[in-house]
Amino acid sequence: MKRGLLLIDRGSREQEAKDELDYICKKVQQKGNYEFANYCFLEVVPPFIEEGIQNCLKTKVDSLTIVPYFLYPGKKVKIAVTEAAKLQSKTSVKFTVTKPMSMHHTMVDIVNSKIESALQKNNITSSRNMVDVLVIGHGSKDPNAQISIKYVVDNLATSYRNVDYCFLEIEEPNILQGIQKCNKNNPEVLVIVFYFLHEGAHVKRDIYGDLNPALEQSTLKKTIITEHIGTDDKMIDFIIERAREVENAN
């Protein structure tokens, strides 16, 4: 059976985000033994979902595994799945749709590895019970988004002195409120985690617009920032794991 895989990403105009998706698809195709692996976007820039699926069907696969490449099981995921399902009736190729990249121990492992890497890079040798962590997510109107980021935070809590979260936009606590709360805890070291999949506009510019002024107002002793989720090998394995969950069930 020839099987293909399609990631549905939110969408970004930044070339770095597209480069990361190209890399991820290449690795997923190799490790997952797919006929091909490709990506499309829900919004912002093409290829959009219909074009992405049509491109997949040109390869004459027998089945297509669709992965909503989102960190939160919210409204965006529902829209992506609905758009993909509309096209199922137009082809004999069987579609299977995975869960998004949330509520799973792998995301905890990835965030923890980003924290460890940032500490090492900055030559921080403090005991982990002296380190505080602030996870910055995007924000969503869907309550499941907050549940998803809290899952990561709660599972990290046993490894560090304090672990909390805030959001770039849409919901609170916002970045200023998050930094103010961390400031009250007076940590020896604060590690700030960018909980974003790509090096898009949010990671490159938008977060700093709120984060830098908040840090300037604080009295925090030492702050370091992790890399975003990016092209971590654990994420590539996680995509394949999510795909296998639905492929083996059918």
UniProtKB/TrEMBL annotation:
The keyword Lyase appears for this protein: yes
Question: Which GO molecular function annotation, any one, does this entry have?
Answer: lyase activity
Q: Entry's SUPFAM superfamilies?
A: Chelatase
Q: Name one Pfam family in it.
A: CbiX
Metal-binding keyword on record: yes
CDD domains, per database record: CbiX_SirB_N (cd03416)
> Which keywords does this chain's UniProt record carry?
Lyase, Metal-binding
What protein am I looking at?
A: Sirohydrochlorin cobaltochelatase
Which organism does this record belong to?
Candidatus Nitrosotenuis cloacae
